[in-house]
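During the second half of the funding period, the structural biology subgroup turned its attention to how the target accommodates small molecules. The most pressing case was 1,3-dihydroxyacetonephosphate, which had performed well in the primary screen but for which no bound structure existed. We therefore specified the complex as follows and requested a full 3D prediction, including the ligand pose.
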Amino acid sequence: MRRPIIAGNWKLNLTITESKQLAQQLVNHLADVADRDIVIAPVFTALTSVAEIIEKSPIQLAGQNCYPQTTGAFTGEVSPKLLRDSGCHYVILGHSERRQLLGETDSFINQKLLKTLEADLKPILCIGETLQEREDQQMQEILSRQIKGGLTNLTEEQMGDVIIAYEPIWAIGTGKTATTEQAQQAHAFIRNLVLELFSPGVAAETRILYGGSVKPDNVDGLMGEEDIDGALVGGASLKAEDFSRIVRFKK
Ligand code: 13P
């Protein structure tokens, strides 16, 4: 069935030296893990240093963003090809912080996603509603727009490499995790959208991660839900022991 993924989004944190230290601690803690995917997303400047440290471990590397062009006059941007060149196998796209702070739209995220797949990177497409949208009963409409917009022009075959992360914005960095029921309900809705857009086979195989205040003490409950295939972890991914416990979730 679907292989679980636990991904750590380090966001704008840690110097190169600190990133290497954390990566080494994770290698020490997690060297024996073989039945689930482990991904960490350091800042761009630390990618190549961290890549060397995790090289012979089960941990894989992700970029936190990319630009939908390969080379050219795009000052300050990083292409999927360069992320691959730095040792990445994944890239986080459309994180709510980028949507909110940098005005990223679904169509821009879709361009990045298509370019990412061309570069042999697996995109982790982030979606999620604000508290206001949830209270206004708009969650389904928002998720539906983000999924349809983000996955425009993708083939069924390409969907095999796409990972979706449901991150309700009200649960990010707030300590307010969605209840297991709220998360499962949203994940089931998303899986059904994927079914409508692609096929039952694609829907059954697409991995959907939950993100938003995932911690060692709530991961087991979340991972026990049928449609939750992993976690995208922010704050707790910066502590080796917490992240390692999250990776070692028990159903
Ligand atoms: P927290 O785990 O800190 O809530 O962050 C979640 C997140 O945004 C991961 O991408």
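Two results from this model are relevant to the next phase. The mean pLDDT is 98. The chain has twelve helices and eight strands.
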